[in-house]
Amino acid sequence: MSQASDKVVIGKIGAPYGVKGWVKINSYTDTPEGIFNYSPWILGDGKEYQIDQWRPHGKSLVAKIENVESRDDAERIKNLDIHILADQLPELGEDEFYWRDLTGMQVVTTQGYDLGVVKDVFNTGANDVLQVKANSKDAFGQKERLLPFVFDQVVQSVDKSGKVITVDWDPGF
């Protein structure tokens, strides 16, 4: 894992909910309620916040954050990203990794062709996708490739220490 001082965005503060400082929460964690397993939250204003209470509200979540006592207070933190320190994330097994760990890794084919560097990782609903920025002198004229992150079919291995992802992929695509 990278430096412990790195911050990770795990959600976003939504609109105020009521008049007593409650806010809607947009969670980016695997299970929406999982966002409340992390404390403290560091909001986009750089300050640390503790969660006083939270509950489901329909298909969404609402929370009462300590020292946010009114609707005006809730308005001031609306739309701020919710960060935690990277060292708050659970330790992963040998063959597991966070998307953030894949960003910046070199992507090479099983034949040794260098496709470029992972610029981003995102989910399409069907599977995760690697956005690979091609090298400036790509022989196939590619500037960027989108590769499905599907083990055994496309992704053959991920070498975390060497920062290399090996894929079975035709460089012409």
TrEMBL record:
Primary residence: cytoplasm
- Chaperone in keyword set: yes
Gene3D superfamilies in alphabetical order: PRC-barrel domain (2.30.30.240), RimM (2.40.30.60)
Q: Where are the transmembrane segments?
A: none
* Domain RimM N-terminal residues, every copy: 9-87
Q: Name one Pfam family in it.
A: RimM
The compartments listed are:
Cytoplasm
Q: Which domain of life is it from?
A: Bacteria
Q: The PRC-barrel domain covers which part of the protein? A: 94-168
Which keywords does the record carry? Chaperone, Cytoplasm, Ribosome biogenesis, rRNA processing
Listed HAMAP family: Ribosome_mat_RimM (MF_00014)
Q: What is this protein for, i.e. what is its function?
A: An accessory protein needed during the final step in the assembly of 30S ribosomal subunit, possibly for assembly of the head region. Essential for efficient processing of 16S rRNA. May be needed both before and after RbfA during the maturation of 16S rRNA. It has affinity for free ribosomal 30S subunits but not for 70S ribosomes.
Self-association and partners: Binds ribosomal protein uS19.
Task: Name the family.
Answer: Belongs to the RimM family.
Q: What is known of its domains?
A: The PRC barrel domain binds ribosomal protein uS19.
The protein, known as: Ribosome maturation factor RimM
State which gene encodes it. Answer: rimM
